[in-house]
Amino acid sequence: MAQAQVSSGLNALDVRDLKPGQFIWAPQVAPEGPVVLVVSLDEQRAYAYRNGMAIGVSTISSGKPGKDTPTGVFTILQKNKDHRSNLYNNAPMPYMQRLTWDGIALHGGSLPGYPASHGCVRLPQAFAEKLFAITRHGDTVVVANAKAAPASVVHPAVLAPVTQTGQVHGRTFDEYEVFWDEAAPATGPLSILVSLYDNRVSVLRNGVLIGSAPLQKVNDVALHGSVLLVMTTEMEDIPSFLDKGQRQHRWVAHRVLGEEGVEMPSLAQLSSAYWVPDAFSRKLYAILQPGTTVLISDLPGVRGTTAERATEPVLESAP
Hints:
Blueprint: H1 12-17, E1 23-25, E2 35-40, E3 45-50, E4 53-59, E5 72-75, E6 78-80, E7 96-98, E8 105-108, E9 121-123, H2 125-134, E10 140-144, E11 179-180, E12 190-195, E13 200-205, E14 208-214, E15 216-217, E16 225-235, E17 249-258, H3 267-273, E18 274-275, H4 278-287, E19 293-297
Parallel strand pairs: 2-10, 8-9, 12-19
Antiparallel strand pairs: 1-4, 2-3, 3-4, 5-10, 6-7, 7-8, 11-14, 12-13, 13-14, 15-18, 16-17, 16-19
């Protein structure tokens, strides 16, 4: 994956020169706003964004061969600063943030300079503590590995939302079906997945699926990967196709996966290329707020598998 873009507060040369266990942390670049973490497996780096600005970058240690860290788009499901492994000798896993119910998480740990975990993403403990302090349940974590073909990075899908009871959402939708949960909570991080592979929009609040609708392509625009958008408080004249009406918020775009050197289409091009049912669009527009994240991807969308309620341990090796 091409090195993630860093803000003026983080020097790109410094990022390349980081040794195992080192990190850069500059929260003053964006003191407030939503947090998105982008993990690059091939770089063995994690990039922290707040309100669309890079505020930190860290070395990591991901899953070793045979225990690979899964790629995709995840939401933070649980947080526990004092977690210990119940698989491997009660090994400490400080500042644990769960990404999947089958055991993948972020946490502080040993960084030998190469992938060494049983699937988790290990962070320097000091960085893990700082990140833990600013994230919320439902915040977005993107795990990418450009060594795989963009259209087949994750199978069967890039996102596994959960139900209100903590189970993986197993519902599938007919091609033209529109779903909206009127009883869904009105607060919490809002994330939207636009899958151009499935021609579908999925809306999640706190990692829980609250809406889904078909997406119709009306103009030929090639994305060539995945783009993460963050809604800001600023206004502009050109809305996105998910942000129609009198308020037209500015969206900050970050390519998180794709072909290096291939230009990303503009938000205006994306806005004119796709259509979402009007009734669904109005419901979605009504709940958009600064901090909303949108992932537009060529990859398949919401997983259709089921699982037991989250009682699984985190899959980590002993230090």
